[in-house]
Design goal:
This protein is mainly α. The protein folds into two domains: 3-79, no CATH class; 109-185. It has helices spanning 3-30, 35-53, 58-67, 69-79, 102-133, 138-162, 166-185. The radius of gyration is 24 Å and the shape is flat. The model has no long low-confidence stretch (mean pLDDT 80).
């Protein structure tokens, strides 16, 4: 089989696998209950990596497998969109309730500190620990630490904004920051 035919078949299989995976996920999410369709959709997306590898190397195959489902998903979402004609109604204005006591403002300020600087410190310390001490090659350590820090910051921010117990958030993020710093320093 010629290289052009293998490449063309890889593109075709990759597109079909990505599209079928997105469509299966859309159907599974619209009709929850049986997890087999959900697992099948994710499996098709995972298998599309193999199909894309026929077109290019492993790096390009992974990039294509991650990027191609997005336009397919946009097309699926756009196909279900409803366009309304005529004068749009204004949504009712939401009344903003201001807290009556100073305790609510202080809790909001503490939550903002936990979600912002404290979560960032914990994420940066863990990213630095990975970049400096992970048992990988130097480029892998640096790239891994650079990708780990924003991910951990997002996780810390989500935790800080969803957990009602501020003490647990502060202690947890402080401990993660201290452990990351200690790991990086040793």
């Amino acid at each position: 089989m010629s290289a052009a035919l293998v490449s063309a078949s890889g593109v075709g299989l990759g597109l079909v696998g990505s599209a079928a995976g997105v469509l299966c996920l859309r159907r599974a999410w619209r009709h929850p209950g049986d997890g087999r369709l959900l697992a099948f959709g994710w499996g098709l997306l995972a298998l599309s990596v193999l199909a894309w590898s026929l077109t290019a190397g492993a790096d390009m195959a992974l990039a294509l497998a991650l990027l191609i489902p997005s336009p397919v998903a946009y097309a699926v979402l756009a196909s279900g969109a409803k366009v309304r004609r005529g004068k749009a109604k204004r949504p009712p204005r939401a009344e903003v309730e201001l807290p009556q006591s100073g305790a609510r403002w202080s809790r909001a300020a503490l939550r903002a500190v936990c979600a912002g600087p404290l979560a960032a410190a914990a994420a940066v310390c863990c990213g630095a620990a990975m970049a400096l001490k992970a048992p990988l090659s130097e480029p892998d350590r640096l790239i891994g630490g650079a990708f780990l820090a924003p991910l951990l910051w997002a996780v810390g921010m989500i935790w800080a904004t969803t957990d009602p117990r501020l003490g647990r958030i502060g202690a947890g993020l402080g401990a993660v920051a201290a452990l990351g710093l200690a790991a990086a320093a040793l």
